[in-house]
Design brief:
15 helices, alpha/beta, Transposase (putative) YhgA-like domain-containing protein, five-stranded mixed beta sheet
């Protein structure tokens, strides 16, 4: 059996980081509540980040997403949090450490705001653990350290014991790495297990919906009919019939993110990429057109 192919990892990671960002900060930084004013809303600087770092091909064998977020500290000052998620990497390619340093000095040069950076490594390369960038020449040296979190290094039992909702996200990614070759029935059992883990944690409705979408779609079933069976079983488990699917969720995110405006600004390729992923999921073409702003004819040709 060949390794299972994941679908739409990038949109899922981007969405779940926004939906769980306070939990994410607490997960990465044990003293988050003492440092950050988590009662204030976060400012997601996607537009500003894109102006500094225009979208480009990640390179062969390298896939990642980035989030730049403005947060407030308890003393009232501002700070930036840069989160980089490396979904797939190839040793020797991508040069994450150099890229993280590049991010740092460009952001600092533009905003002069303190930055903490976190690289979440969701890849499967055993020896890939970049956490520092160095330069040295003729008595001049530079060292840039950043936070690095390797998902495949984490202990499943520790994640299950962690009450933070973000631990379910990490557990989902970890089990995807550990169970690359598994039947649809086995995968469905894992998703039920993850759903139960989610139910065991306190969180608001929006966060719970985001986690449900993530654990449901992070790894796809070979037979799409099994997805429908899983969703029906979840509805039965919770005694409800209105569980929102990721189709509606991602289409709503696409509209809120202004994909249609993006087309007007030359971001047509991004809209096409999203439409292609939606099409693979079996979403109705009319709904894809509504969410991305592309025409039905364009989507049919993808």
């Amino acid at each position: 059996m060949s390794p299972r192919k994941r679908r739409i990892d990038d949109p899922l990671w981007k969405s779940i980081l926004e939906q769980t960002f306070s939990h994410f900060l607490r997960f990465i930084f044990p003293d988050a509540d003492a440092v950050f004013d988590l009662s204030r809303p976060f400012d997601y600087l996607d537009k500003e980040f894109e102006q500094l770092f225009p979208p480009e091909s990640n390179g062969k064998g390298v896939r990642y997403v980035d989030k730049l977020v403005k947060v407030y500290l308890n003393d009232g000052s501002e700070q930036f949090v840069l989160c980089h998620v490396e979904i797939q990497s190839s040793k020797g390619n991508g040069d994450l450490a150099e890229r993280m340093f590049h991010y740092f000095y460009r952001i600092w040069d533009r905003y002069k705001v303190p930055i903490t950076a976190i690289a979440i490594l969701a890849d499967e390369n055993e020896g890939y653990r970049p956490a520092v960038y160095r330069q040295k020449f003729m008595g001049t040296s530079l060292r840039y350290d950043f936070n690095s979190y390797k998902i495949m290094d984490q202990e499943e039992s520790v994640l299950r014991a962690n009450e933070n909702p973000f631990s379910v996200i990490v557990l989902t990614a970890l089990l995807a790495i550990k169970n690359k070759k598994i039947s649809d029935e086995g995968l469905k059992a894992i998703k039920h297990d993850l759903y139960d883990e989610m139910l065991n944690r306190d969180m608001d409705k929006d966060t719970r919906q985001g986690l449900y979408d993530f654990l449901t779609y992070y790894v796809s079933f070979d037979n799409e009919e099994v997805l429908g069976i899983f969703e029906k079983e979840i509805k039965t488990k919770i005694g409800r019939s209105d569980t929102m699917g990721t189709q509606e969720y991602l289409l709503d995110k696409a509209e809120k993110k202004g994909i249609q405006k993006g087309i007007e600004k030359g971001k047509r390729e991004e809209a096409i990429a999203i439409a292609l992923e939606f099409k693979k999921m079996g979403i109705a073409i009319a709904d894809i057109a509504k969410g991305t702003g592309l025409s039905i004819e364009e989507i049919e040709k993808l």
